[in-house]
């Protein structure tokens, strides 16, 4: 399944201006333009990680050198695997891994993101989008309209 830029922004609650900035700062986003569906479910996981980090004060420009491996890792594994693990970002080496929390062996500073938190955020965003689009939200259901008698008498 592919998502449009608008759907991605709505699911992750990312303003248009922020997404434009991300496109300039993150190489995996630089060539994506237009309104056609171009984001995979793995891309949504990677962008949810970027959103989580930037919400916590990390500058998006500081993530540019790990953005390519982040998108590769997030597109390699299904959501279930990400949900059971943690994403580790080694900013010094520009490396990203999906691993189990108990298997982290770090000799340097790592940024560790909970896979379950990322996937839950995406599920919540997708659920909200589906509820907003549901026709059941109409105040008055559609009704058939009877034809008028002709104006001729």
What does this structure look like?
The structure is a single chain. By secondary structure, the chain is mainly alpha-helical. It has one domain. 46% of the residues lie in helices and 9% in strands. The chain is built from six helices and three strands. Strands 2-1-3 form a three-stranded antiparallel sheet. Helix 1 packs across helix 6, helix 3 crosses helix 4 and helix 3 packs across helix 6. The longest helix has 19 residues. The chain is elongated and about 85 Å long. The mean pLDDT is 83.
**General shape:** elongated
Order of helices and strands: HHHHHEEEH
Main pleated sheet: 3 strands, antiparallel
Question: Structural class, from secondary structure content?
Answer: mainly alpha
Distinct helical segment count: 6
Strand content: 5-15%
Helix content: 40-55%
The beta-strand count equals 3
> Which strand order does the major sheet show?
2-1-3
Radius of gyration: 21 Å
Q: How many domains?
A: 1
> Alpha-carbon distance between the termini?
57 Å
The pLDDT mean sits at: 83
Comma- or semicolon-separated keywords:
153 residues; mainly alpha; 3-stranded antiparallel sheet; 6 helices; 9% strand
